[in-house]
Amino acid sequence: MYQSKSHRPTWAEINIDAIRSNLKLIMSKCSPEIQIVGVVKADAYGHGAIIIAQELTRLGVQYLGVATLDEGIELRTNGITIPIILFGPVEVQEFSKLMEFNIYPTIVNLSYAKDLAEAYRYRGIFPKVHIEIDTGMGRLGIPYERALLEIEQISSIPGMIIDGIFTHFPAADTDIEFSKEQLEKFKNLISEVKRLDIKIKHFHIANSAAIFSLEESTKTPFTMIRPGLAIYGYSSTPIPSLRNSMTLKTKVISIREMKKGESVSYLRTYRIKNEREFIAVLPVGYADGIPTLYSNRGYVVIKNKKFPVVGRVCMDYTMVSLGENSSNIEIGDEVIIFGNGGISVEEFGKICSLIPYEVTCGVSKRVPRTYIRQEDRVDF
């Protein structure tokens, strides 16, 4: 019998074999010389950054990508030694931590580059950086129109090592024409950079969506790809070969026989209509990752059968209807909220008007992760 470390029978199973399979599929879409930046931001999209980073490193991923400095430091202090790119700026007072933990910062404008170089020069260190170019994301990065000039200026800063430049697609799986325009802009910029003999090692543009929708983004002149969501087996548009790697599970902790007219949970949004109905209580709620939008709309799977969620999802509990005869369900039976054997992450998200990222990132820290590798399992 499974016993979580939190002594609460709710847990997320992370299938390492599925992640391996997804990475193999991703690699099959690229030229052999292409390097991979495995994106493990937001605790590896909720899958557990340390374990996933260790696994990706073993599988030959050359770089890792994070969104915050703390995420990078966590990886370094847990034995990760491969290059880590921080996709976003940090405050000047944090530059010393970038140096201490050898994390590659992202340059988003010229003044930031100058401040960074000055801080590194004071320590006698040459910074390795990636420069973000805005070709249409409209968020961070040097505007495309000024990109070549500012790249030239950044490259002339003494000691500055430009490890790479990149841009980002906002809609690689939904607006192919716009994405192709971005692709051409960035390719033109790369050509100009090479014409001016500016020393840059890597050029990257492909995120998860582009790897599968824009083959050109994974070939020369690009030298890197940045898969994130696809590593974990999810996509905003269907990709049948990807394998979901997270399964959220719990167990039935109570079964109640309720009578006609009685109500279930807060606000009394569900009332018993038949003479009797059996209601199962599950120790999982919105503090664990089931949004209240799942109330009276979603379902779970118990013993290979679907049962509807009834009443309002609570912070710590969710109720499901077993029907008029309890359907042979017993206390202690395993319940699949989403994932392998149940509703997919994508479908769960649709019911709640969420994208897959939000579903897996929404599984909170209080839910322990169990890592399955073939017949082995490791609890965290």
3D structure, described in words:
It is a single chain. This protein has 2 domains: 31-232, TIM Barrel (Alpha-Beta Barrel), CATH 3.20.20.10; 246-379, Lyase, Ornithine Decarboxylase, Chain A, domain 1 (Beta Barrel). The longest helix is centred in the middle third of the chain and has 20 residues, at 176-195. The radius of gyration is 24 Å and the shape is elongated. Helix content is 28%, strand content 24%. The protein is built from 11 helices and 21 strands. It is an alpha/beta fold and 380 residues long.
Observed structural traits:
single chain, 380 residues, alpha/beta, TIM Barrel, Lyase, Ornithine Decarboxylase, Chain A, domain 1, 2 domains, nine-stranded parallel beta sheet, seven-stranded mixed beta sheet, 11 helices, 28% helix, 24% strand, elongated, disordered N terminus
How is this fold's topology laid out?
Layout: E1 10-15, H1 16-28, E2 35-39, H2 41-45, H3 49-58, E3 63-66, H4 69-76, E4 84-86, H5 95-100, E5 106-107, H6 110-123, E6 128-134, E7 142-143, H7 144-155, E8 161-166, H8 176-195, E9 202-206, H9 208-213, E10 224-225, E11 246-251, E12 254-259, E13 263-264, E14 270-271, E15 276-282, E16 299-302, E17 305-308, E18 318-323, E19 334-338, H10 345-351, H11 356-361, E20 369-373, E21 376-379
Parallel strand pairs: 1-20, 2-3, 2-10, 3-4, 5-6, 6-7, 6-8, 8-9, 9-10
Antiparallel strand pairs: 1-11, 11-19, 12-15, 13-14, 15-18, 16-17, 16-19, 20-21
Helix pairs in contact: 7-8
